[in-house]
Amino acid sequence: MMANYRVHSKWFAVQVAMAIAASALLAAPQQPKVTTPQSLRLFVFDCGTLHFMNADAYSLKKEEVAQFDMSVPCFLVAHPRGTMIWDAGIIPDTDFKPGSGTVTAGIATSSTPLLPQLRAAGYGPGDITYLALSHYHSDHVANANAFASSTWLVRKAERDIMFSDPPPARTATANFSALKNSKTVIVDKDEYDVFGDGTVVIKSAPGHTPGHQVLFLKLAKMGPVVLSGDLYHYPEERKLNRLPTREFNVEQTAASRAAVDAFLKKTGAQLWIEHDIAANAKLKKAPAYYD
């Protein structure tokens, strides 16, 4: 009798455990099924804010700048032939704890981790074909390690400095350390056509960093757009033709700005200054998208 009781007790315990596990799965937020888009889509994610008291480092006086704070966006490009993350934020998702609300790190704040926004758009890190960063500074690489299984598109000069000894300043190397072993394509062309149809093109724009780059997108309804990386930080830089004081090579930055301006005229593309907080506030955020 006691043996039968023990058997039934074990059976009951197993059934309870299975029921709890099933309930947990049902209660967990489900990622929407990934669907291949028929045409190019661009998702914009809120990846935080940088808070500044002035714009001295950008050769701008206080009275010349409307807002000192900078937006920190991340982007998902969804193409019929694959997907690409462009820039990965300022605060890593691992810094967010349940109920933590807004997270602060130095002059940066972020209220929403990246990966839940990505899942709400219907994608997980494993669904991302490519990772491309405009450059290696800390406000663009925070969640790079989450995409270490993607193919990394990077210029040799940028990769070299990212893994140099001693490590570079103005970044958090731990946030991209996993990329060292990622499948990597070294981009050596001025313009790199990611999917081979001219709709997603990474364009060289060195100066801010050795391998800084911008992203051209040919959206069917929205029209062509160039994501600036840090070619500019404030719209006033462009309007007043001011150059930052902390560039890797300020002469290269000036040349890259001229080259991108010519590219904008040739393509008719809009320039989206990623750190322009007023312009960024007007952009629709994921799960909505531009196409």
Characterize this entry briefly.
The protein has 291 residues and is α/β, with parallel strands linked by helices. The protein is built from 6 helices and 13 strands.
Report what the structure shows.
The protein is an alpha/beta fold. The protein has a single domain (31-282), classed as Metallo-beta-lactamase, Chain A (4-Layer Sandwich), CATH 3.60.15.10. The protein has helices at 2-27, 114-120, 156-162, 235-240, 250-267, 277-282, and strands spanning 41-50, 70-79, 82-86, 103-105, 108-110, 130-132, 151-154, 184-186, 191-193, 200-204, 213-219, 223-227, 270-272. The strands form two sheets. Strands 4-5-1-2-3-6-7-8 form an eight-stranded mixed beta sheet. The termini are far apart. Residues 1-29 have low confidence and may be disordered.
Could you name the CATH homologous superfamily? Ribonuclease Z/Hydroxyacylglutathione hydrolase-like
Helix content: 10-25%
Largest sheet: 8 strands, mixed
End-to-end Cα distance, whole Å, is: 69 Å
Number of helices: 6
Low-confidence stretches: 1-29
Based on the model shown, name its key terms.
about 290 residues; alpha/beta; Metallo-beta-lactamase, Chain A; 8-stranded mixed beta sheet; 5-stranded mixed beta sheet; 6 helices; globular; disordered N terminus
